[in-house]
Amino acid sequence: MKSTAPSSSLAARDHAVVWHPYTQMQTAPLPIPIVRGEGSWLYAEDGTRYLDGISSWWVNLHGHAHPHIAARVSQQLSTLEHVLFAGFTHPAAVELAEELLSLLPTTQARVFYSDNGSTAVEVALKMVLQYFHNQGQPERRTFVCFQNSYHGDTFGAMAVSSRGAFTQPFWPLLFDVEFLDVPVPGHEAETLAQLDALLLRPDVAGFIFEPLVLGTAGMVMYEPDMLSEMLRRCHQRGVLCIADEVMTGFGRTGPLFASELLSEQPDIMCFSKGLTGGTLAMGLTTCAAPIYAAFLSQDKMRALFHGHSYTANPVACAAALASLELTRAALCTEQRQRIEAAHAAFRREVEGQPGIRAVRHRGTILAVEYDPGEGTSYFSRLRDAFYQLALDHHVVLRPLGNVVYLLPPYCTTPTELELLYTVLRRMRELVLDFIPAPNLPEILHD
After folding, report:
1. CA dihedral 111, 116, 118, 122 (to 10 degrees)
2. CA–CA dist 134, 305 (Å, integer)
3. N or C: which terminal CB in the chain sees fewer CB atoms within 10 Å?
4. Tens digits of residue pLDDT in 81-140
5. Is 361 annotated as a binding residue?
6. Nearest-CA neighbor of 302 among 142, 150, 127, 159?
7. What does each C-alpha distance from 97 to 234, 247, 277, 327 come to in angstroms?
8. In contact, 205 and 230? CB cutoff 8 Å
9. CB within 8 A of 2, min separation 6: which ones?
10. 162 annotated ligand binder
């Protein structure tokens, strides 16, 4: 057994034994050791505090170590920590399913529990494929997705996500899908034409999408009316529609769920991230009654054979129920509206300035696409410079190449928001240093 000297820092100990996600471990700096959280702040081992501008990968809704969620988790731990969910149930799972279904679009009738966003998507894909198999249409197995979409890192989720650097080693193992251009304003007709052509095919089974905001694509946004029309055309052809609300759910886009803004509703919905308020890992997939009915039979082989050891974990369910109580409270609505208004004001301030290509905003999500005068990528020097600049200001952000987004916890105060905006302004100054002088407006040469 390895021994660790008591004087070793937490970061050094981590580096000796841990493999981190999305990280080139040979060249990456030591991780920042966080030992506690409170509100929108994270506290490092050396006492430095960092403002969490991205809700720790979009999961935290109400602030770190929230006492209400902590109390409910503690209570559940002293009552029932876990029970297998095949042939058994427990109060927290039933209550959470009842509560969610009362809030979701009326098309949703059943809840299937899993343990993260990727597995919530895997469940949805398997529901669609087996639905058609059980209906005697096994040839319907093709999915339609958006270019630059992201739905997770398990194999099915990777298959319905954009092909890129992160998935390249696995391309030969991913099933084929059909990609559509994202219907950003001004390009809706092209996307509809692409969709119409695909819907003529007899093998199309499902359309999976991130409603209104494509997260890792750079917070690319499109309009509810357009998505509603796409769903309507899919339904006319019997194609099932999956709303991946893993990021957009629980108030991020304004309403409780992005799908509330649609006039045509999805058949299946996927949730994770904010589901437990950022407290515990959990995934959840809901579906319409006809989908569930297609699995009912005297034939056991028509059942959905999918499960996880920690399916519907009682402690995670308790955290989700507590978080949902906070999300539905008037205070949370006021907090979200305040962040939305502040984002809108910042957008008006910086939109069109030199060094900024576009500013996108919906609900509590704000994204600034900087223009360094050339194309950038996730691996660019500019991305690394943005990341370090934020840390230098004691702010946690995770730039997507030349796109920097804010997705803060709802408890973030006006003063804390102003710190985030200050960092974005400093990033614009940094971008101007990257732009070759001939590309700058004359006023910037003075």
Report:
1. -30
2. 13
3. N
4. 999 999 999 999 999 999 999 999 999 999 999 999 999 999 999 999 999 999 999 999
5. no
6. 127
7. 27, 19, 16, 16
8. no
9. 16, 17
10. no
